[in-house]
Amino acid sequence: MITGLGVVILPLCLLYWRTPKRLLQLIFIGSTFAAAAVFVLGSYGVAPPLLPAIIFIGYFLLRLILGASYPTGNGVLRTLTPFILVVIGALVSSLLMPRFFEGQIFVWPQKLIGFNVLSPLSPNAGNYTQDMYLIIDAGLTIAASFYLVTIGANMRHVFDAYLYAGLMVVFISLWQFVANVTHIWFPTTFFLSNPGWALLSGESIGTVIRITGPFSEPAALASYLCGIIGASAWMIFNGDRRLLTRLALLLNLSVLLLCTSTTGYATLGILVAGLALYTFVVGSTTLKKRVLKGLAGVGVVTAIIVTAVPAVAPGVTHQAVTIANATFSKQQSSSYQDRTSTDIDSLHEAVESYGLGVGWGSNRSSSLIPGLSAAIGIWGIAGLLWFMARVLAHVRIAQRHTNIPELKMVTHGCAGALVGILVSAALSGPSITSPDFYLLLALLIAAAGRQRWEAGAAQAPLPRFAAFAAPKVLAAKTAKPTQ
């Protein structure tokens, strides 16, 4: 059955199936509707960003089969190698580990059937569904990394779709907030149409109904907002003066404060502390001045609000105190204790499997690191750390040798967004399956790869990329870039 959102997304995918840049922009736009579906098959809903991601990967592979050549230089393939190896290992683990340790280890299954208790490890549907998500996400990262290298400064247009998507989330969230207060119409079923999600849009703290926007729960909304805030803030502190970036930071920060998510507040605190530490330890003089001005401005605005609101609107102050008490007492709640217990059990699973893991998709945790430890074990964590080191080295080489403003801002924006999402997931996110995260990762790798090519442009012509480049360009420039 096609949903209301599907009526919008499906025609756009068909319209742009031969325009890769538009498909990538659609992935960012579709990722804002995380709790919706474009069509529903029984109890399974296809998420909006998955469709353009699958079409992009299919078009990429089709052109490869038809004889297209893709750039493997500029450090892109070398950077992706650990990621590809970990993905292959995760897929193999989903087949082997549930059978190797079957009945010997107790896990929290992906889908709970009956009572909320630990279950003996065995092959289950979660292995196959999580494998499917992993194949799509990894395929998107690899294909987009190679494609994006060829479009150069146009990567900025793809990344801008991420910031515009953040403004869309702001609009929907504020619409829901006003609807909760004034009881105007809000199309909940349009935004929350995926039967595969547990929807928590009716939760409240005191008399305040918590907002979820187009997401399934406040924590998911906060995690998305933290990515936009991390991206826009880091871009501004590195010299971006555009109105789009400033609006994205200001409005997403405002909605984050309204969403009453403990995860969001904790992530924001960690990001601010990390920003201050990085800036004053290794940051340049210019960066230090910008960060000081930014933090001083936030402090002044906060002081004005704290002073003025109690005098102007005492009722708002009472609600704010209620929300603050509920937020800071979260550690005493049963849900917090259940989530902590789930994470501890996941770490035990990693130990009981001798560091091999119980297999991708076999276990459900509450936060990212225990979940990865249980799923892919010590070897998987080591592989991801290797990949992270490769990405950092790749970006540093690019930043050291070139100064292309558009690509530098894409690099800063993607880095800030990825840090915000990862910190949030480390606090309260069992996994990261949304394609926008993997597209941000591809943008970061591709932007650095393009900068490395530009640094040696006199010795290495533009890579031949028959899948997407214009024929005239290919005829004049056919050599591949050097590593």
Task: Please write out the topology.
Layout: H1 4-15, H2 20-31, E1 39-41, E2 44-46, H3 50-65, H4 76-100, E3 106-107, E4 119-120, H5 125-149, H6 155-182, H7 188-191, E5 204-205, E6 208-209, H8 218-237, H9 243-258, H10 262-282, H11 285-312, H12 314-328, H13 334-352, H14 368-401, H15 405-428, H16 435-455, H17 471-476
Antiparallel strand pairs: 1-2, 3-4, 5-6
Helix pairs in contact: 2-3, 2-6, 3-5, 4-5, 4-14, 5-16, 6-8, 6-9, 8-9, 8-10, 8-15, 10-15, 11-12, 13-14, 14-15, 14-16, 15-16
Task: Explain what you see.
The protein has 483 residues and is mainly alpha-helical. The chain has one domain (4-476). The chain contains 17 helices and 6 strands. It has helices spanning 4-15, 20-31, 50-65, 76-100, 125-149, 155-182, 188-191, 218-237, 243-258, 262-282, 285-312, 314-328, 334-352, 368-401, 405-428, 435-455, 471-476, and strands at 39-41, 44-46, 106-107, 119-120, 204-205, 208-209. The chain has a two-stranded antiparallel sheet. The chain has a two-stranded antiparallel sheet with strand order 3-4. Strands 5-6 form a two-stranded antiparallel ribbon. It is globular and about 60 Å long. The protein starts with a helix and ends in a 7-residue tail after the last helix.
